[in-house]
Amino acid sequence: MDAVSTWVRRFAPLAPAGEVLDLACGGGRHARHFAALGYEVLALDRDPDALNAAAGSGIGTRQLDLEDPALAWPFAPGRFAAIVVTNYLHRPLLPALLASLAPDGVLIYETFARGNEAFGKPSNPAFLLEPGELLAVAAQAGLRVLAYEDGVVEDPRPAMVQRLCACGGAFPRAAARLDQGERRETGQE
Predict the structure, then answer these.
(1) Distance of CA 167 to the CA centre of its chain
(2) Burial class of residue 78 in the structure, from the number of CB atoms within 10 Å of its CB (0-12 exposed, 13-18 middle, 19+ buried)
(3) Cβ–Cβ under 8 Å, residues 124 and 116
(4) CATH class of residue range 6-186
(5) Domain boundaries in the chain?
(6) pLDDT single digits (tens) 23-69
(7) Phi and psi at residue 47, in whole multiples of 5°?
(8) Model pTM?
(9) In this structure, how many other beta carbons lie within 10 angstroms of the beta carbon of residue 167?
(10) Which helix (H) or strand (E) is 59 found in, with range?
(11) What is the pLDDT of residues 9-23, one digit of tens each?
(12) Helix boundaries (H) for 16-162
């Protein structure tokens, strides 16, 4: 079983109460993490085997091929307290996805970026973020960026990635405890 991304682990505690969407959830590592934190989670993927692996207490699943052009985005604006996306990029979804974030919601996004070709797959530009692309997406959606990284990681394998944690305009500034995840992991309060 894959470990929870350190980026997701760090920022998951910032999500306000409400439902969390784990988009392209794969085996559900992040869905399980949010459920363990007490959130109700909707794990969404096109692979029924992945959804079977993701299912669990506090986790609802939905099979949907998000890249099928005949399907419309099925979620209402403002529905989700948090949206987590890792290792997935389908640009046509981004406007509707971000519209589904609650006004005080948190977006946690981490995926491959241009330059990953040097490390292997994915290498197709359709699946690689351009420099600063997540920042531009957040700005277009009117989100406030809490944290952003763009560079090389070694774990879980060498890759070029972009990472973003952003929030809606109604997210209280004092709730942006950027050290919260680090304190929880070390047991400090």
Answers:
(1) 12
(2) middle
(3) no
(4) alpha beta
(5) 6-186
(6) 999 999 999 999 999 999 999 999 999 999 999 999 999 999 989 98
(7) -95, 115
(8) 0.92
(9) 27
(10) strand 59-63
(11) 999 999 999 999 999
(12) 29-36, 48-54, 94-99, 133-140
